[in-house]
Amino acid sequence: MLMLNRKIFLILLFLSSLVLALFFLWTSFSFKDRGFRQENFLPIFNTQNINSNLYNFDENLVVIYNRVPKTASTSFVNLTYSLCKKNQFHVLHINVTGNNHVLSLPNQMRFARNITGWSAMKPAFYHGHMAFLDFSKFGMPQKPLYINIIRKPLDRLVSYYYFLRYGDDYRPHLVRHRSGDTMSFDECVKLKKPDCDPKNMWLQIPFFCGHHSECFEPGSKWALEQAKRNLVSEYFLVGLTEELGDFIELLELSLPRLFRGAVENFKNSNKSHLRKTKGKIDPLPATEAKIKESKIWQMENELYYFARDHFYFLKNKNIMSNGKQQDFLYEKIKPPPNQT
């Protein structure tokens, strides 16, 4: 009985060894013959994939300027058209049907995929009057850089009010929607007409807030807070209408691939300061006081000063107290690169 058990044990041991040997041979040939490589099992996003020798950040740069109306956007966009040939990048205007500021869900996906994958257009600068769109929600491997310009809400509303009636010096012969209506902004506020309703100021917050329905609900505290979050975390840079020159200078320093020579061009080009509204009259103090009672003005104004403080913070960090530009370097590198 003992001898029988011993034979069974030896047979099982032999069979186990044979199975292990066959398994080892199969795995060895499988990796070789089936084209498997060790790197196939590395994470998709490893450091080698974004090595500067393999991925050219500048040549794949995509900037989206979801421009707010009446914030000096035409002057800034014309600057990019002046630079695009010299700096070899493409400028594309986003024209949404019916001048709608929000894309339908299918068009959101198409837009995100198109901009991300359209290599022939890169590097690219896109501009259009549309709300912020978060590319990460569509599973895109690369997000564009968003920029924008913001203006004091009452100044923007007054400018738009007279623009609808008298137009500007950019296209002086174009007949505007309210052409022939000579009522002043002060009279409009006094008579409580719809064209000067504070609800018409509810535009900068939605543009920064995004494509959520709450973003377009006038007076929404949630929309204001979302706009602030996006402004800081999703926008590369947000400038101020009254400090357009400093905005352009920061862009040239930060993104020279697109904006090299922008400061000089802006100073000397006759296209730098376009679209001055005709017939604009500054509102009376009583009119301003009436508008500033509105919750909507207060929220839009809060966003403006939030953006202004952040812009000043970024601008001031560029220049040190001794007048020199800030720089950074790497120190104490261990082990040295040539010894790794």
Tally the beta strands.
5
In percent, how helical is the residue content? 40-55%
Low-confidence stretches: 27-50
What's the mean pLDDT score? 84
What's the SSE pattern? HEHEHEEHHHHEHHHHH
SS field, number of helical segments = 12
Whole-number radius of gyration? 30 Å
Characterization of this structure:
This protein is α/β, with parallel strands linked by helices. The chain is 45% helix and 7% strand. It contains twelve helices and five strands. It has a five-stranded parallel beta sheet with strand order 2-3-1-4-5. Helix 7 packs parallel to helix 12 and helix 8 packs antiparallel against helix 10. The longest helix has 32 residues. The relative contact order is 0.12.
What's the gist of this structure?
The chain has 340 residues and is of the alpha/beta class. The protein contains twelve helices and five strands. Strands 2-3-1-4-5 form a five-stranded parallel beta sheet.
What would the keywords be for this entry?
340 residues; 7% strand; five-stranded parallel β-sheet
Strand and helix layout:
Elements: H1 2-33, E1 62-65, H2 73-87, E2 90-93, H3 105-117, E3 124-127, E4 145-150, H4 153-166, H5 185-191, H6 204-209, H7 221-233, E5 235-240, H8 244-254, H9 256-259, H10 262-268, H11 285-291, H12 295-318
